[in-house]
Write a structure and sequence with these properties.
Strand order of the largest sheet: 10-11-12-15-14-13
Strand content: 15-25%
Oligomer: single chain
Structural class: alpha+beta
Distance between the termini: 93 Å
Order of helices and strands: HEEEEEEEEEEEHEEEEHH
Largest sheet: 6 strands, antiparallel, barrel
Shape: globular
Length: 393
């Protein structure tokens, strides 16, 4: 019995030492137990996206802040991160991890109300409020109102890809963002719309969603480096089962008519949160956008790449003087082109050789080859017919 007691005391001592050495800044925590003003719920979550169990908040106290009265281990969001989190033990140290909130109703403060009349319909797609301020490579920092259809796709707490909102419940992205294919565990994924920066939260502008369905093009082959049919759909719903609400920072992009193309040299825009310099390891903190010019299919196939690399299902584009381009982390994001003051989604950022490398234009999935595929899987033919595209007399 004495031996058991000694072991328990030693264990407690070690736990205390580790808790004291934990040096995260808890200066934003004001309430001892609730922490972020959340009300208690029957569906409290205390499991992270990695499956770890949260530790009680009162395990961590220092000279300035005490959580001695906070015995629960429920997920909270005291510092307004992208979603609630908690502290877990990983490899003998304490770290933050985002929580698995797939089935929990966690709402940002003052979220936009999901009124069906305020959803972005096919008749109002492609509209935006331009608000560009000051680098996607060689580009400029952009406020999300300039690219209100941009989606940030996260796996756990890590950004993996971009996407484009094409209907209130549907985001179009790249198939290669989901290497697990049909085996992808969609509950680990979340989608944010209206996001200016990937590590900041603006509860007024942003809308957060779970992924309720993933559709990867059946012709995409994960076993090769061929990016043919690099297209996927995400069906998104919030914690109340609702879809995106139309605001200045969240809008849909229009889909052009089937097989519609623009002339070589036409300028379009790309946007994303990916790496902002060649060989860089860090993603851009802020949303960025850049202008790129469409490259002829003939030049792309014969001058810059080969016919094995570039087929009829892709298009190519490059920045002026090869200085603007998409990069890692931008995959799945939009290439949108303005026609009659309306933004149409012509391409999905797919691949390229390095980033902004001379004579290596970016390669984009040609959206107008997939109107029927999109319509079949979304059940929204009105969104894929291209009704807002100007018709020839």
């Amino acid at each position: 019995m004495k031996c058991i007691l000694r072991i328990l005391l030693l264990t407690c001592t070690l736990c205390f030492i580790e808790a004291v050495s934990f040096n995260h800044d808890f200066s934003l925590f004001t309430d001892k137990c609730i922490l972020d003003g959340s009300k208690e719920s029957k569906n409290e979550v205390s499991v992270t996206v990695s499956g770890r169990i949260c530790l009680p908040w009162n395990s961590f106290q220092n000279r300035n802040h005490s959580f001695s009265n906070c015995y629960h281990n429920y997920c909270r969001n005291p510092d307004k991160r992208i979603q609630p989190w908690c502290i877990v033990r990983r490899r003998n140290r304490y770290v933050r991890e985002y929580c698995d909130i797939t089935d929990r109703e966690i709402k940002p403060s003052n979220p936009p109300k999901s009124d069906p009349s305020k959803q972005d319909r096919e008749s109002s797609c492609g509209e935006r409020h331009l608000n560009r301020i000051t680098k996607i490579i060689g580009g400029s920092r952009s406020m999300v109102e300039s690219q209100p259809w941009i989606a940030a796709i996260f796996k756990g707490d890590g950004l993996i890809c971009g996407g484009t909102l094409i209907a209130p419940c549907w985001v179009l992205t790249a198939a290669h963002c989901f290497p697990g294919g049909k085996k992808t565990q969609i509950k680990r994924y979340s989608v944010f719309l209206g996001k200016n920066a990937i590590n900041e939260t603006d509860s007024i502008k942003e809308q957060q969603f779970n992924v309720s369905k993933l559709v990867v093009h059946e012709g995409f082959d994960y076993t090769t480096e061929n990016f043919n049919n690099d297209i996927a759909l995400l069906k998104i719903v919030d914690s109340n089962g609702k879809c995106a609400v139309k605001t200045n920072s969240v809008r849909t992009a229009c889909i052009p008519p089937f097989q519609q193309m623009l002339p070589t040299g036409f300028y379009c825009e790309i946007a994303g949160y990916g790496r902002h310099q060649k060989g860089g390891f860090e993603y851009s903190r802020y949303l960025k956008q850049a202008q790129v010019r469409l490259v002829s299919q003939n030049d792309c196939q014969n001058k810059y790449y080969s016919k094995d690399e570039v087929n009829k299902n892709v298009l190519c584009a490059a920045g002026r003087d090869w200085e603007e381009d998409a990069c890692q982390g931008d995959s799945g994001g939009p290439l949108v082109c303005e026609v009659n003051n309306t933004m149409f989604l012509f391409g999905i950022i797919s691949w390229g050789k390095e980033c902004s490398k001379k004579f290596n234009p970016g390669v984009y999935t040609k959206v107008t080859n997939y109107n029927n595929w999109i319509s079949m899987h979304t059940g929204l033919p009105k969104y894929t017919v291209g009704s807002r595209y100007p018709q020839k007399d």
